[in-house]
Amino acid sequence: MMNRLTLRREVRLSGHGLHSGVPVDLIIAPAENGIYFRRGILAVQAIPENVTDTRRCTRLGEISTIEHLMSAFAGLEITDATVSLSAPELPALDGSSAEYVAAMADAGFEPLPDKEIEGLFSRVFIQQESIKIAVSKGSGHWSYRYDTGERWPQDMIFECEDVVDHYAQQVAPARTFALREEVPQALASGLGKGLDEKSVLILGDDGYEGEARFPDEPARHKLLDLMGDLYLSGVPVKQLNVSAERSGHASNVKAAAMLRQAVFGTSG
């Protein structure tokens, strides 16, 4: 059985789109029919085949950068919500999922009738050159290996034995990051306009530029993103054991589609 959960009351947040920098107001409201993102009269369900872009973020329909909020839904085990936005990108906030988690926890949660699912009986596995994602039936043991080769920090692994129990303290606060040499090109391409020195962690040649929240913050943030993307499958993260390395949004969403197919018999 899959436990279903929604919010007790709606949540309102405001900020600037992570990449666009455009002001955006966001409302997360209770629901009973899954997770939907809405702008105006158009609503799109948070499932893999509705993903339209995976470059630099995950875009659902015309709505960009959904992964941090989806990760918060996954970590809090929220299965049903409607997200309404005034602009086509979610706010950067502090570059992590922590503010989403705090706001939804303050609103409180409301249980919904359970849903029976088949469960995952076959392993989902992706390997594309150095990218690996392995998903199996489990108890919420997740790990991520962030590997930059010879460049600092080289090999960094974060492992969480119970990703739901430890999500709010150990995963959600991990922020968006960038390699120092990538910053000029990102700015020239119009990316990261909603970020500042407090909401993005810069990885210099020999260490962090600024104070890191965790020694392995990049690996934790990559796991945060992975959780958000895989949750498009609709499968509770605590029912899975997951390990990944060098994955990004494209491979994450591909794994989510495979996982949805394995559990529900459909990628839609």
Characterization of this structure:
This protein is of the alpha+beta class and 268 residues long. The chain contains six helices and 17 strands. The protein has a domain of 118 residues: Ribosomal Protein S5, domain 2 (2-Layer Sandwich). It is 23% helix and 32% strand. It has a five-stranded mixed β-sheet with strand order 2-3-8-4-5. Strands 10-11-17-12-13 form a five-stranded mixed β-sheet, covered by helices on one side. Strands 14-15-16 form a three-stranded mixed β-sheet, with no helix packed on it. Helix 1 packs across helix 2, helix 1 crosses helix 5 and helix 5 crosses helix 6.
Radius of gyration, Cα only, in angstroms?
Answer: 17 Å
Beta percentage is 25-35%
Strand neighbour order, sheet with most strands: 2-3-8-4-5
Number of DSSP helical runs:
6
**Shape category:** globular
Largest sheet: 5 strands, mixed
**What's the total number of strands?**
17
SSE class: alpha+beta
Any guess at the CATH architecture of the domain at 2-119? 2-Layer Sandwich
CATH superfamily of the domain at 2-119: lpxc deacetylase, domain 1
Low-confidence stretches: none
Please give the alpha-carbon distance between the first and last residues. 20 Å
CATH class of the domain at 2-119: Alpha Beta
Topology order in helix (H) and strand (E) letters: EEEEEEEHEHEEEEEHEHEEHEH
Reported by name, the CATH topology of the domain at 2-119 is: Ribosomal Protein S5, domain 2
Approximate helicity band? 10-25%
Mean pLDDT: 95
